[in-house]
Amino acid sequence: MSGPTGGSAAPFGRRLTEKIAVRGPLCAGIDPHPGLLDAWGLDATAAGLEKFALSAVEALAPEVAVVKPQSAFFEAFGAPGIAVLERVVTEARLAGALVLLDVKRGDIGSTMGAYTAAYLNGHSALAADAVTVSPYLGFGALVPAIEAARAEGRGVFVLARTSNPEAGELQNALLRNGKTVAQSIVDQVAALNAGAAPLGDVGVVVGATVAPGELDLSALNGPVLAPGFGAQGATVGDLRALFGAGLRGVLPASSRDLLRRGPDPAALRAGVREVRQSLDE
């Protein structure tokens, strides 16, 4: 398979834009947290993980533009968990959703090359439409992965200003040029996306709980993954205050707020439609 859609190497930004136009911008997280497994009446075993994850995919993936599995919750189960994650990637894409694998990888040289081979190479069972990456070993260390992703029509989302409270001390630190660390990351991503249409292939992660005006995203020309929507407290109003009324290319991410409605598939689907309607109002 040479591309993420069985041979097609259409740019990720284009594929994402087209998918959002049909299904809306909601990104559904699949986070098999032990507490959620318990709430669904499932054991914290590989079998419980598989039941939870594949049931969530079956209900959510036909409804949303993007499904975002959190890799760590699968890795916690060792090899059986990785096998379930492979099935999640496959089944979600068969249901028509793009898969954004939340792995937050970031390293240098051959190690980053190995991560790239695992998550962005079409010969890997874990290859996703896009992944999250961390720039905190230097933004330049990510460039080979970004180039490899683009060559296969895949995307990356670079952590810029995350929603966790501990992030501010580092991400809002001022550089010698007067910019914050987060703004510098946004600007470097914007440079990679310059001239792309309808949207660049390199996105940023900006928490939906970030204060409006903290970042200038006007030149980004790429997608934004916005965690913190729903269970972490951010509302549709917060999204619009932060990203603008149009929310172009913004993917509000919801996990617990949707998954707590399970295991009933109808309730899960109803939750998606409820959130999607709120984003359109």
From TrEMBL:
It is an enzyme of class 4 (lyase). InterPro entries: Aldolase_TIM, OMPdecase_AS, OMPdecase_type-2, OMPdeCOase_dom, RibuloseP-bd_barrel. Its EC number is 4.1.1.23. Gene3D superfamilies: Aldolase class I (3.20.20.70). It catalyses: orotidine 5'-phosphate + H(+) = UMP + CO2. Residues 25-271 form the Orotidine 5'-phosphate decarboxylase domain. The active site is at K104. Signal peptide: none annotated. Pathway: Pyrimidine metabolism; UMP biosynthesis via de novo pathway; UMP from orotate: step 2/2. It comes from the Bacteria. This is Orotidine 5'-phosphate decarboxylase. It comes from Amycolatopsis bartoniae. The gene is pyrF.
